[in-house]
Amino acid sequence: MPGNMFDDKGRLNIPEVKYDKKKTTKAEIVLNAVYCPQGHNLISVDNEVSGFPGITVRFNGRKSGSGLVSLSAVFGDTSHSVIEGNLDPDEPLDLSCPHCGTELDVLASCPCNPDAVTVMCYLYPKKDPHQAIAFCNVLSCPNSAVIRSGEAMRLLSESRY
Ligand SMILES: [Zn+2]
Ligand SMILES: [Zn+2]
Question: Which ligand number lies closest to the CA of residue 118?
Fold first, then answer.
């Protein structure tokens, strides 16, 4: 009988799960929820970046003006896509929640530009800087890819020496 739960000796028939090792090591870590300081989810299914729903935030810059940008939710990926307005990727931008306008919390400064800062999005609606991701607010900066906040703190403290 196909799909029988038990084999002919009456043992439970557990299907063998095959893991594709290559695929596992290559698998991308993708965020499916990140939150503003007020607990709004910033991941937008309407704005895909690199094939996944992106982190959508409002930007404001002296040169760039105001608009909406979606950042890749894939760890280590610096891709972004501008949804509304135009931005200068070399300018440090004020990044805020598109739902409530609250600016993202700043973790540290980034060495790429005197005005650049690493901002955080929280992994849970209740804000905790240790359960967060961080990225630089200059989108041309290699640090604009999302990394864990703990890793960002370590990298930034190492870069001072
Ligand atoms: Zn918000
Ligand atoms: Zn930077």
Answer: 2
Cβ 156 vs Cβ 136: under 8 Å: no
Instruction: Identify the band that residue 1 occupies on the pLDDT scale cut at 50, 70 and 90.
Output: very low
pLDDT, tens digit, 9 for 90 and up, residues 22-69:
544 456 899 999 999 999 999 999 999 999 999 999 999 999 999 999
Q: Output the DSSP codes for 57-111.
A: EEEEETTTEEEEEEE--BTT---EEEEES---TTS--EEE-TTT-PBPPEEEE-T
Its pTM stands at: 0.81
CA of 155 to the centre of ligand 1 (A): 28
Compute the distance from residue 14 Cα to the ligand 2 centre, in Å: 50
Rg of the chain on CA atoms, in Å:
20
CA of 41 to the centre of ligand 1 (A): 7
Cα 40 to ligand 1 centre (Å)? 4
Say which amino acid occupies 85. Answer: G
How far does the centroid of ligand 2 lie from the alpha carbon of residue 43, in Å?
A: 22
The structural domains of the chain, with segments of one domain joined by +, span 29-158
**Distance, CA 57 to ligand 1 centroid (Å)?**
10
CA count, 13 A, side-chain hemisphere, 101: 1
